[in-house]
Amino acid sequence: MDSLIDGVIISNRSHQLVTELVEEHKRGKARSENKIELFFTALLDYSAADEVPPNVSAILRGARKWFMANVHCRSGSFSRQSGAEANHHFTQLENLLDAAARSQYTRMTEIDGILEETNRTDS
Fold first, then answer.
1. Over the range 47-61, which residues count as b (16 or more CB within 10 Å of their CB) and which as e?
2. Burial of residue 70, with CB atoms counted within 10 A of its CB: 0-12 exposed, 13-18 middle, 19 or more buried
3. What percent of the chain has pLDDT over 90?
4. pTM, rounded to two decimals
5. Distance (Å, rounded) from C-alpha 112 to C-alpha 92?
6. pLDDT, greater one: 76 or 13
7. Helix or strand or coil: residue 1?
8. Quick one: pLDDT band at residue 91, thresholds 50, 70, 90?
9. Is 37 exposed, middle or buried (0-12, 13-18, 19+ CB in 10 A)?
10. What are the CA-CA distances from residue 87 to residues 18, 82, 93, 95 (Å)?
């Protein structure tokens, strides 16, 4: 009889739960991948992801790939080279965040100027 069974028999309810978990994981992965585009369009003032210069996009994608491969769910220790690589990626991410902060500050300054002008003309 063992030769007839290939796999594990589970209830329909268990199968449904596992299927739902797999689908949620797929949706989470898609959201994670879309965050890169959201970062560029929302914080760096690009109207579409295809307007982002390839070198800038490569920095964020490279850092994300490195962190997912080397840090995500890691149980071992880091080598000296890993520390240098992490420092490199953190520096690049810091530069991108600095650019995003400056972009947002510029936008807020422009909006503030518009509001001040509107208040002067309404008075």
1. eeeeebeeebbebbe
2. middle
3. 1
4. 0.54
5. 30
6. 13
7. coil
8. very high
9. middle
10. 38, 8, 10, 12
